[in-house]
Amino acid sequence: MFRMTPNIMRNLAVRKSTRRYPAEVREPFAHVRGELINDIERCIFCGTCEVKCPSQCIQVDKKACLWTYDPFACVYCGVCSDTCPAKSLYQKTQYRSPIGERLIITLQGQPRKKDKVKDPAREAGAPRDPGEEKADPGSTAPT
Asked: Which of 43, 44, 78, 104 has the most crowded Cβ, counting Cβ within 10 A?
């Protein structure tokens, strides 16, 4: 007991080495990968993030345009945001604040319409190549 007394007295006199989180939050380090955000307006629902995610915390329903994310399963590696072809996924520099219950994030997007032909020559019905001619619907091609 007497051998511990100097240690106890020293601990009472010096500043504490821990913080009272979440009451005291420190600034994050530079280039930290924090909370994952999806800009659902830019998302094309290709499913690349779902395939590349090592923790399998993302599910993409292409037909219903539904993007589901489980932040408790995420390891914040950034692979999904790096491989997103539409660049709709990005990570904040702040972590998600602690909560008491399980949270599943589900975002509903709008289905994408197919881009129509934007080449004015094709819209006018002109052939693509100089040697290519427009086929007559009544004629048959030789075999």
From this structure: 43
CB 75 within 8 A of CB 34: no
Cβ(129)–Cβ(98) under 8 Å?
no
If one counts the domains in the chain, the total is 1
Stretch among 29-33, 60-64, 137-141 having the lowest mean pLDDT: 137-141
Interval 105-126: pLDDT, tens: 999 998 776 555 555 555 555 5
Name which of 118, 116, 109, 132 is nearest 40 in CA terms: 109
Cα–Cα nearest to 37, from 87, 85, 83: 87
Q: What CATH number should be reported for the domain holding residue 55? A: 3.30.70.3270
Q: Give CA angle at 10 (9, 16), nearest 5°.
A: 115
Q: Residue length, the chain?
A: 143
